[in-house]
């Protein structure tokens, strides 16, 4: 026996074979130096991590998630979509999408009805084609009719408009087909096969061309300066007129009329910016009140104005900069299949949250100037200063 007791540890080291010591080192060193396992959880295709270290299965098409699994080996509890709703992909949504309805007044006709696994399929009626606004939205427009000097290259379908081209011996100039009268790239049948004898212009003609070109460049620069100056003067004049309209007497400072109240109401088609007249004051009340009250702006009108000014591809970047999180963005996209309606909901989340933070009391109440000021600053921070200037001009903000 190599080791006789605890008191003979030194004797055990001396007597232990060198091979045994090397074997023990090879067993323990990899354990000490092995890297930590990856903390990122990966699930097989068709499953997703539930946030508790367990992979749950997704629901199939036509179903929504009721309860996710809570232990390994369990299955998620899924429910079929109710009538009038659908889901066209495997998912773990807690809601199904609402089926769309074809609109005859918009020149649409139904191709196939909505099912739990797919949305309603609509197409444009004969004589109209689908004009896409974005990836989810389109409108049916009347097919183009070729003119008298044009011929049809491609007939109109429900997906594409008519394609026209000029008929023979005609060429397109300024959007119209004109008859060929001289030699050009479009009218080659008028070109002579014999090359001209002298193609170089005389010296005097070259000087005249240079003079004309110089005068043209100078005129263009001058016109550009005039347009820029006119735009700035008009913008400043518009702001002053709006401030005077909302504050009729000169005793009140412009800063007292800058406070903007934003009212959440149902969306309307026309933007309304009105100065509310001062209510009568009794003799016992203080007489030092301002001669005007703050401007009122409806939240839906403001949001639609922003959607008209900001490119579709920049809306998500804007709402994220305003504090709307990804969960709220995904919820808006899930609730609204239309891209514009989803973007409207994202901006509405920001507006209502700002209303509560400013003491407005939530939906249907008034907000103060800092909310609009935050929107203008955010637009400039993400390089959308043109949109901010348009809003300032609209509301008379200096």
Silhouette: extended
- Give the termini separation: 97 Å
**Which class of the domain at 236-277 and 291-395 in CATH terms?**
Mainly Alpha
Helix and strand element order = HHEEEEEEEEEEEEEEHEEHHHHEHH
| Architecture (CATH level 2) name of the domain at 236-277 and 291-395 | Orthogonal Bundle
Radius of gyration: 36 Å
Strand runs, count:
17
Count of alpha/pi helices? 9
- Helix-strand category: alpha+beta
In CATH terms, the superfamily of the domain at 236-277 and 291-395 is Death Domain, Fas
What is the CATH fold-level name of the domain at 236-277 and 291-395? Death Domain, Fas
Overall pLDDT metric? 76
The biggest sheet, with number of strands, parallel, antiparallel or mixed sense and barrel status, is: 3 strands, mixed
Task: Describe what this molecule looks like in 3D.
The radius of gyration is 36 Å and the shape is extended. A three-stranded mixed beta sheet has the order 16-15-17. The model is unreliable at 1-15, 30-38 and 245-294 (pLDDT under 50). Among the domains are: 47-97, Tumor Necrosis Factor Receptor, subunit A, domain 2 (Ribbon), CATH 2.10.50; 126-191, Ribbon (Tumor Necrosis Factor Receptor, subunit A, domain 2); 236-277 and 291-395, Death Domain, Fas, CATH 1.10.533.10. With 398 residues, the chain is α+β, with helices and mostly antiparallel strands. The protein contains nine helices and 17 strands.
């Amino acid at each position: 026996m190599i080791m006789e007791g605890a008191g003979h540890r030194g004797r055990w080291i001396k007597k232990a074979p060198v091979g045994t010591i090397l074997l023990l080192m090879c067993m323990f060193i990899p354990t000490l130096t092995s890297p930590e396992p990856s903390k990122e959880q990966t699930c097989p295709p068709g499953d997703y991590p539930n946030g508790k270290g367990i992979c749950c299965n997704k629901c199939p098409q036509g179903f929504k998630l009721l309860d996710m699994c809570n232990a390994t080996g369990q299955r998620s509890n899924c429910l079929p979509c109710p009538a009038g709703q659908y889901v066209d992909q495997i998912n773990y949504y807690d809601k199904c999408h609402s089926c769309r309805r074809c609109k005859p007044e918009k020149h649409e006709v139904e191709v196939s009805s909505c099912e739990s696994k797919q949305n309603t399929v609509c197409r444009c009626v004969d004589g109209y084609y689908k004009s896409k606004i974005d990836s989810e939205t389109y409108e049916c427009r009347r097919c183009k009719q070729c003119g008298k000097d044009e011929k049809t290259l491609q007939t109109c379908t429900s997906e594409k408009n008519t394609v026209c081209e000029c008929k023979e011996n005609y060429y397109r100039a300024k959007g119209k087909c004109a008859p060929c009268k001289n030699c050009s790239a479009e009218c080659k049948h008028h070109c002579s096969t014999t090359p001209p004898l002298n193609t170089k212009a005389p010296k005097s003609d070259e000087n005249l061309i240079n003079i004309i070109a110089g005068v043209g460049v100078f005129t263009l620069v001058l016109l550009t300066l005039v347009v820029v100056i006119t735009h700035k003067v008009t913008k400043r004049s518009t702001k002053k007129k709006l401030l005077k309209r909302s504050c009729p007497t000169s005793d009140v400072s412009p800063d007292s009329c800058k406070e903007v109240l934003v009212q959440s109401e149902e969306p309307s088609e026309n933007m309304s910016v009105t100065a509310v007249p001062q209510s009568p004051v009794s003799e016992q009340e203080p007489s030092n009140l301002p001669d005007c009250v703050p401007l009122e702006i409806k939240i839906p009108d403001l949001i639609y104005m922003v959607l008209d000014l900001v490119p579709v591809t920049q809306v998500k970047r804007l709402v994220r900069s305003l504090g709307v999180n990804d969960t709220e963005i995904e919820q808006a996209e899930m609730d609204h299949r239309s891209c514009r309606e989803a973007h409207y909901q994202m901006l509405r989340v920001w507006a209502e949250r700002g209303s509560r933070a400013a003491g407005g009391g939530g939906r249907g109440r008034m907000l103060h100037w800092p909310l609009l000021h935050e929107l203008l600053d955010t637009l400039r921070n993400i390089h959308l200063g043109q949109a901010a200037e348009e809003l300032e001009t609209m509301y008379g903000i200096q």
